[in-house]
Specification:
The chain has 5 helices and 5 strands; from the N terminus they run H-E-H-E-H-E-H-E-E-H. It is an alpha/beta fold.
């Protein structure tokens, strides 16, 4: 019983730690997401005002249907998020083909893919410094190889208790909203769009990273809350069993004392 009570205290402490992390980063998370959404919208406005796909680098346009896809999976880095890793992995494996390319960001989700013996082409141990590297890698790979589409699979943070699996498509970039404004680019337009595409990919990856980080804290908090409740129920069951055993022992001792007293009276 003492070991179960210790596990309950440990689960409550970890749940409290995850809850504090969510509450502490919630305002920062919202501000950064607004910033990344503004960057993506600026790129969309510039793309529409300059004639769409004719102005961006050719590697961001559509590729043949038989070309592979690049799937970038962002998952949890630490433990106690097994349900999140399994859900992300099932979502990815459901649509991946043999020729598709898989990039995994996060140590915990990487272990799940390796346990299924799935080919992981590029992996990142942590999410902190993957933003610029992923953007450079996407641009370099798309320049040298035909890629049909590039998309991120990540847990979307809805609130402190809820998250869902979402896909964020980076390529092909095709916003449907029309824009009548015109944006004049002064200088080297090719250099401008190369930098703009890099900023756009960074904004996409970083927004997905922020959602993943918050969802990981939320999932860990929920898991530890369930573990604490299960440990509490187990403690109640063990205490009830202990009380039953104690009561049975007391009853047996009373019966033995009573039987001995009756035997002494019969002898007299």
């Amino acid at each position: 019983m003492k070991s179960v009570q210790f596990i309950e205290k440990l689960a409550n402490a970890m749940r409290f730690t995850s809850q504090v992390a969510v509450q502490r980063n919630l305002s920062h998370h919202r501000v950064l997401l607004e910033h990344f959404e503004a960057e993506k919208e600026m790129f969309a406005c510039a793309w529409r005002s300059n004639g769409g796909s004719a102005v961006i680098p050719p590697y961001m346009s559509n590729a043949p249907e038989d070309a592979p896809d690049i799937c970038i999976v962002l998952g949890p880095e630490q433990g106690f998020c097994g349900a999140m890793s399994d859900r992300l992995m099932r979502h990815c494996l459901k649509g991946l083909r043999e020729k598709d390319i898989l990039w995994v960001i996060g140590a915990n989700i990487l272990k799940r893919f390796k346990s299924q013996r799935w080919r992981v082409d590029v992996n990142f141990a942590t999410r902190k410094e993957s933003k610029n590297y992923v953007a450079d890698l996407v641009q370099t790979f798309c320049k040298n190889h035909p890629v049909r589409r590039v998309f991120c699979v990540y847990p979307y943070f809805q609130n402190i208790l809820t998250w869902s699996v979402e896909e964020l498509h980076i390529k092909p970039f095709n916003p449907t909203t029309e824009s009548s404004s015109r944006l004049s680019v002064i200088g080297d337009t090719q250099c401008f769009w190369k930098h703009a595409v890099h900023r756009y990919i960074c904004a996409c990856v970083e927004s997905a990273r922020m959602h993943t980080q918050m969802s990981e804290h939320s999932a860990r908090m929920t898991a530890m809350d369930k573990a604490a409740n299960n440990a509490n129920d187990l403690v109640d069951e063990l205490r009830l069993d202990w009380q039953r055993c104690r009561q049975a022992l007391v009853t047996r001792e009373l019966l033995e004392v009573t039987a001995g007293a009756i035997a002494i009276e019969d002898i007299k």
